Amino acid sequence: MKFKLSLSSLILLAMFAGIGVGLFFGEMVGWMEWVGTGVILLMQMTILPYVTVSLISGIGRLEGKAAKLLFSQAGIVMLIIWGMALVGILVLPLAFPEVTTASFFSTSVITSPPPVNYYDLYIPANPFKSLAIGAIPAVVIFSIALGISFINMEGREPVIAFMDVVGKGLSRVTNFMVKTLPVGVFASAAGAAGTLTVDEFASLQVFLVAYALLCLALSLWLFPAMVAAITPFSYREVMSLSRDSLITAFATGNIFIVLPVLIEGSKKLFAEKNLTRADTDGNLDVLLPIAFTFPNAGKLTVIFFVLFCGWFTGKDVSITAYPMLAMSGLLSLFGSVHAAIPFMLNSLQLPSDLYQLFLVSSFITGKFNSLVAVMHLLIFGLLTTALIQKQWLVTTRDLLKAGGMVLAGLVLMIVSARIISSVIISESGNTAELLGNMRVVNEVSTEIQDQYPDLSTASAPAANLQSIIQRGVLRVGYLPNNAPFTYFNQQNKLVGLDISLINTFAQELGVEIELIPYDPKRLDITLNQGHIDIAISGIAMDATLMGKMNFTDPILQLHLALVAKDYRLKDFSTVQKLREAGELKIAMVGQEKLAERIQAARPDITLFQLTNYQAYFEQPKEIYDALLISAEAGYAWSMLYPDYGVILPEGTDYEFPMAFATARGNYSMLVYLNSWITLKKTEGLIEQEYEFWILGKGAKEDRPRWSVIRDYLGWVN
Fold first, then answer.
1. Which 3 state secondary structure label does DSSP give 149?
2. pLDDT for the residue numbered 37
3. pLDDT tens digits, residue range 462-521?
4. pTM
5. Contact by Cβ (8 Å): 636, 104
6. Of residues 539, 535, 524, the one with CA closest to residue 673
7. Mean pLDDT (whole number) for 645-672
8. Is the pLDDT of residue 688 over 60?
9. What strands, in cross-sheet order, belong to the sheet with 486-488?
């Protein structure tokens, strides 16, 4: 007898072989993702037409009373499945170990994700457009509407028969394309395994472990157990029916391609149990496609990522916020996951840039939530059809047994995730080390002074550009503790965005640098007496100082924010909460004009001028409620002091320019600096420095993806 592997076995072998190839060759096989994507797209080509004809024929053959019963019972079952999934999602954060962390600033903090066009998504004004753009809800709504119009209509039989024939033809095409699936799975797995870096994976270990356990518990334990408890179908029968579809969905991350298999398998299961009625097949043809109109339980599991983000940033989502998160998450997931996650992060005042972590992990999470989605579709069809046919077998004993199994599954899931997470997580202050290890690349010969200049006696007049070139030394005023613009790193070197820019400026000017600290309250005197030629360190342009010294053209636009202890951030999340907070003590450094405006608008706020930002973070007691600072600098400081976080109160959008400063009459230096800044903006240097020092891109050394062929065998460099 000749041995032949089943399709699911071939897919599993292809997936593991692809992972092996990816680990062996690394980034060299990244291009194979294109092949995998192409195969998956070919698999999808029949799905929307199949959904359309199945819905039209399935609903169209119904009688009026049967249709009403079908839709009412389906709603009850959908709510039960959603409720069970949400319970598992919302209790799983109990598995998170205690940890404190922070992140670089991100532009997503100040920008909103593009809005979802719900009209295109849900209203089939042009059904052909909906089909073309893959707007599944709109296609389903159109198909349901057309199918309902056929109910009780005379002469509908030829149309229904035609739709049945088209559906069978589409199923044959799908069955043919499934034969190419192992090739696509192999290519996708190889490309992903070859490009996902070890560091990216390590930063997501806690989330991935907990998420995988959540999806496995729902798809392999809780959902099948629920069906076995209240229907004639056993746990073994449900798992046997779903096995190939689960494996296919896990390998491909795609649930569309198993829809015909689930429908036909469900029909077969009812027939084998002698539970088939006249409308059983028609109900199943309708129910599973209808399920695509609503968020499936697999989609709901991404809500757990938002809870993970709260833990990851040290801003745990409060239990009181769970109802709002569940409701907003459910509604937003009627649209795209890629729009829903930023929306949920924003609604909970969590950094939207954490969405990038979800994208990095999407290859893995897509596999696991596909398991839940497939099981959701299957049990939705089985439970609803059995309910309509009055085949639910609900007894007190069965309910207690099912409740015990659900509770045991949840406890086992939480305990397992907690143990594994505690082993793999390490609280080592990585963010502070990352900021502390950043360095200036193009460094010129530099002398750093640590003594403030004596302002009691005037120095020589401010040196013009020619004098500086002849002298061979550019005297630059700096603030020692003003991350990320000027600060001392772990090697005790003065680094930062401004230091990097001024090094490039001095290098092109052909001079060395002497760095001299200054008192920000007396900066104009320090400049005008000639103690320094240029002042740097993230200086905010201030109208009250423009008559006392010169500012260059803006280098960056910064965004005003508040920094406070993590547990206080929610008190400052909106303008309304700021008003309700009563008397506040806010610390700030400089920006006298802004201080005047705030004091005039809010006399109940007491402002305290500090000499430097470090004085706020190292206050012996919590004297100040918050620190007024740029969001860009605030995120850098929160990396050094992870107990603090940054908040941009909703309803505020205040920007201010950052510049260098020169002496009041030193116009030759001012003109040259302005031209230089314009040139560097055009060349992209300032944007490059912004991405490095502010956004943290490249702060960690990029290394080629680990691979056997490079790192173990040494066959390639």
1. helix
2. 75
3. 888 889 999 999 999 999 888 899 999 888 899 999 999 999 999 999 999 999 999 888
4. 0.63
5. yes
6. 535
7. 88
8. yes
9. 481-482, 486-488, 494-495
- Tokens at residue 427, please? 């609280």
Cβ–Cβ under 8 Å, residues 646 and 631:
yes
Cα–Cα dist 29/245, whole Å: 28
Upstream peptide bond of 484 is cis (omega within 30 degrees of 0): yes
Cβ neighbours of residue 320 closer than 8 Å, sequence gap 6 or more? none
Q: Which residues contact 364 (CB under 8 A, 6 or more apart)?
A: 208, 212
Per-residue model confidence (pLDDT) at position 430: 54
Let me know: does 553 contact 680? Beta carbons within 8 Å.
Answer: no
Residues 312, 553: Cα–Cα separation, whole Å:
38
Task: Give the span between the Cα atoms of 315 and 351, in whole angstroms.
Answer: 10
Question: How far lies 19's CA from each of 186, 506, 630, in Å?
Answer: 8, 50, 44
pLDDT of 33 above 50: yes
Closest residue by Cα to residue 256 from 332, 361, 333, 177: 177
| Contacts of residue 221, Cβ cutoff 8 Å, sequence gap at least 6 | 405, 409
Q: How far apart are CA 445 and CA 581, in angstroms?
A: 50
Q: For residue 671, give both structure tokens.
A: 């003109």
DSSP string, 362-393: HHHHHHHHHHHHHHHHHHHHHHHHHHHTT---
- CA torsion sign for 91, 96, 99, 100 is negative
Angstrom distance (rounded) from CA 56 to CA 53: 5
Give residue 1's pLDDT: 45
The letter for the amino acid at 28 is M
Q: Give the per-residue pLDDT at 696.
A: 84
427 confidence band (pLDDT: 50, 70, 90): very low
Question: In 3-state terms, what secondary structure has residue 397?
Answer: helix
Position 82 scores a pLDDT of 92
Spatial CA neighbour of 578 closest among 605, 599, 554: 605
pLDDT reading at 54 higher than 90: no
Contact between 496 and 482 (Cβ < 8 Å): yes
Please tell me the total number of residues recorded for the chain in this structure: 717
587 φ, ψ (degrees, to nearest 5): -95, 150
**Lookup: tokens for 701:** 């050394």
